[in-house]
Amino acid sequence: MAGGEGDVKLLGLRLSPFVARVRMALDAKDVTYEYVEEDLAAKSDLLLASNPVHRKVPVLIHAGKPVCESRVIMEYVDEAWHSCAPNLLPVGALERAAARFWAAYVDGELFAAWGRVMMAATEEERAGRAAEAAEMVAHLEEAFARCSNGGAFFGGDAVGYVDLVLGSNLFWFEALRRMFGVRLIDERRTPLLAAWAERFGEAAAVNGVVTDTLVGMAVEHAKKLRAAAMTNK
């Protein structure tokens, strides 16, 4: 195992895809770490001291020093444990730039899009929101064809940076399917991503982080969010 006992701590929230990707990145690198679940309604002093700007998770604490923001943390993990395979980011400069672009696209565009699907007030609105999200997923289907170079993952033969960023949203995609029958990744529209999602779910780095229990928790949390939103209208 990489890292020493007590060297690495992760402050997180199980239902956060941003936390899930960091946990999977650490697991992919075989890094030993202590996971601390935060209560965002009563944030710990450690969280507030470690991330005073945004006051949110995830926060990685390595040798007493905090690193914030999930994609920044993933790059830090890749560099700090560079001798541990696999490399999360590609080696080539152009490929690294492409990976960063698509990861930012997932977080900046797709994350908000599936959130709008979940919170839609009517079936008509949800259908429109789902169509918008599906169009974004179609761009990622094309990106996979280019970035994977014929491999099983965006990172080629091993799970990499974009795989973890997109894959960390999959349990919420499944929650949307269970709640509303919305399939954002559909083998008819996006066959490459559908096959990728199945492989990603079987990857060693995902085991223990994303579970069926977590999907159920996401469904219940989404119901509470929707109920609160309806009450406040």
TrEMBL record:
PROSITE patterns: GST_CTER, GST_NTER. InterPro entries: Glutathione-S-Trfase_C-like, Glutathione-S-Trfase_C_sf, Glutathione_S-Trfase, Glutathione_S-Trfase_N, GST_C_Tau, Omega/Tau-like, Thioredoxin-like_sf. GO terms for cellular component: cytosol. Keywords: Cytoplasm, Transferase. Its EC number is 2.5.1.18. Residues 6-85 form the GST N-terminal domain. Residues 92-225 form the GST C-terminal domain. It catalyses: RX + glutathione = an S-substituted glutathione + a halide anion + H(+). GO terms for molecular function: glutathione transferase activity. Its main location: cytoplasm. SUPFAM superfamilies: GST C-terminal domain-like (SSF47616), Thioredoxin-like (SSF52833). CDD domains: GST_C_Tau, GST_N_Tau. It is found in: Cytoplasm, Cytosol. PANTHER family: GLUTATHIONE S-TRANSFERASE, GST, SUPERFAMILY, GST DOMAIN CONTAINING, GLUTATHIONE TRANSFERASE. This is Glutathione S-transferase. It comes from Lolium multiflorum.
